[in-house]
Amino acid sequence: MNGNVVVTGADRGLGLAVASQLAEAGWRVFAGQFKPDWPELGEAEARLSGLTAVPMDVQSQDSVVKSVERVRDQVDRIDVLINN
């Protein structure tokens, strides 16, 4: 099954690995980006068509609401949420 997934904390490391592998497997991935100055997520986004970086600070309700709105503008549902 492929669908839409949100991965928080996907700037680098484990979150980026999970987001990248899901995108490579055909999932539409919205990757939460906390540190925009880290280049790893941007590089993966340029390489993988199914991966979209979404600015997201899970400690800020305002940031999370804005992230939800950005995702909602692109898809009508989320099938999986991975909180990293």
Structure in words:
- This protein is α/β, with parallel strands linked by helices and 84 residues long.
- 38% of the residues lie in helices and 21% in strands.
- The protein is built from three helices and four strands; from the N terminus they run E-H-E-H-E-H-E.
- The longest helix has 12 residues, at 13-24.
Question: Which labels suit this protein?
Answer:
84 residues; alpha/beta; four-stranded parallel β-sheet; 3 helices; 4 strands; 38% helix; globular
Q: What kind of assembly state do the chains in view correspond to?
A: single chain
Apparent shape: globular
Task: Bin the strand percentage.
Answer: 15-25%
Contiguous helical run count? 3
What about the largest sheet? 4 strands, parallel
C-alpha end-to-end distance: 21 Å
Radius of gyration: 11 Å
Order of helices and strands: EHEHEHE
Mean pLDDT: 96
Low-confidence stretches: none
Fraction in helix: 25-40%
Structural class by secondary-structure content: alpha/beta
Identify the strand order in the major beta sheet: 3-2-1-4
Question: How many strand elements?
Answer: 4
Question: How do the strands and helices of this protein lay out in sequence?
Answer:
Blueprint (H helix, E strand, L loop, with lengths): L3 E4 L5 H12 L3 E6 L6 H8 L3 E5 L5 H12 L7 E3 L2
Parallel strand pairs: 1-2, 1-4, 2-3
